[in-house]
DNA sequence: AATGAATGAGCATTCATTCAT
DNA sequence: TATGAATGAATGCTCATTCAT
């Protein structure tokens, strides 16, 4: 097995363990066991426990960006792009509960634990939203008075809070489709310029 | 000093310490020191470390509900009520950074740590939003196709993500007013029925 | 309530608690609760936890000596006296399980815990046996080659080990009468001079 | 060093420390220091402090049984066998004061601390005595009316009480030989059938 | 005398990390 | 590279004792 493979195997094992137990309750030996390597082996690939967490963020979110970007590349309409982002995000959070837990819970802690860690990948992910909005504003589709820096957080926060509830409650009250409908119904109506709003609403019905 | 006072003193000290260090990195002795009591004294008022965290949630969020409820009682327009909720929430999160941290970070972990803990107070808090929406729908102000159960999470998630960034970054990019303007601009435009939307937008300009 | 009464009340409570939980697992608050006084009150009558244990020995064993002495005073035959001692001891150990536990277990530890504690009362109790033997030897009833200092321990040890098993096992295999019969059968036959042995054996049958 | 060696090293260290300080006053760090291992290492071999105590009983008493059994195997006369048991026991208790303390004091507590612990090894040890007696009875040497279940406790209790005093008092009043003489003088005279008693007494003189 | 809230020293146990093999 | 036994620092919690009331 190549080194890269073992590195990756540990990352996936860690994602699973962190998701299940949380960073602090996760034991290095849990991760080692899950990855089927010896405890000491982990330290050949990572500096310490926290380093594993950071790597989990970087790699898992990197893959997320990859996937979302690919889907977006096939669409040019900023309205559709926003919907694609939301759909992709919620779908993946629903499918990969471990990743969801890690993003929703562990990522938040990490900021406090080491101030120097800037979550670049995570920022990059959220900036996909602001990029879409800016593009839409340039095309006269999204209202010019919307500040993308605030709107991106509002939009992501809405998705995040919804998927958070999915993670903790066993039963899912609403389907992804229903939820997307609601979210887009609110945000598009809220962010489109009046003309576009009318047209978009019509096209939806 | 009465027992209730000491209980309260410990709660506030714990909020501060949990906010600063996080639950797992917080030491009982840190809390004791902050509260100016002996380590052992804490165990006269709480069963264990986790019990302190739960109590922090219950009491601090209880106070939050109290305050928000009072402000809302003075207003009957569901549009204004939503704005008041947002303003109150963001203002308090900005003012009380410790509480903000605890709500944004520690509250999330707690769900995983003890499954039986239901965060009733927190649910109660978020349900203020859905109650406002339902009232507005009954009055024909908010769109009938909005599902309050989803919209409450979208609205709270938006506020939460924004205030979360405030907590971690020292400088604040936007003022509360600007932010409220943006959030309300999006959500009201997104949730009001067409007639109301026109009238509300006009009144804003 | 007079001071002496409260002192006594605490002693009895402590005997009960020590017997049930053992010295180290017993809490001062357990004793206080059992004695229906406040924790602090105990320190008005005793210097510390260990002092309570010592007092329990002194007083409870003192009462034991009192009772045994009274019974012995009514009998002059050293053979009968030894039987009376055994019967009294086993009967009381069986009746008062708390006292039995304390003597069998806690008394042994105490020697190690404070070297200066000499267990005078306990020595006094066991010396009742050697006194009986010496008297019997003087009368030509017990063998002259028996060393009372060794025999007293052998006799007490035998009784103690038997009653120890009674304490720990719920069911009692043998009655006090059967046991006394066996013990006296062995020890009298073992210690009496040949003539006396024959006569005693005959009187038993 | 092999795992078994380290296990054994900890057992011996624990025996020493328990003997010196008693179970409750013994610190894990004391045992670790005595065994020249780190505190944490102990937990690689034992589940908890109490588990160490149980293991000490099992292993040390197991070794005791081994030794006594070997000595007994070379002798067929039940009278001599009883003497060998007494001699071996007292000799070893005198030589290994730590083991003596642990058997006399800690073993007694343990029964109370965990009810489920049955001290099987200890029972096995004491049953050596009853086996000897039964064999002797079958050969018509020991009195048939002696109940081995009581006599074994009387005999062991006598030895135990005597060796207990040796442990706590620095000076030894009597030698092992003198003591054995006394004990056997009493118990053999007490338990042999009349004919055998006469013959044995004669052979002793 | 009596109370019981407050104290803080003390310890069993855990687990991230190291390093000899 | 890989292992996993060994390490030892770190901490939540207990409880004998004190002392203000």
Task: Describe what is shown at a glance.
Chain A has 205 residues and is mostly helical. Chain A is 79% helix and 0% strand. The first copy, chain A, has helices spanning 3-21, 28-35, 39-45, 49-73, 78-95, 97-113, 120-138, 148-168, 176-191, 194-204.
Note the topology.
Four copies of one chain form a homotetramer.
Chain A: H1 3-21, H2 28-35, H3 39-45, H4 49-73, H5 78-95, H6 97-113, H7 120-138, H8 148-168, H9 176-191, H10 194-204
Helix pairs in contact in A: 1-2, 1-4, 1-6, 2-3, 4-5, 4-6, 4-7, 5-6, 5-7, 5-8, 5-9, 6-8, 7-8
The structure holds a DNA duplex (21 and 21 nucleotides).
Main attributes?
homotetramer; 205 residues; mainly alpha; Tetracycline Repressor, domain 2; 10 helices; 0% strand; DNA-binding
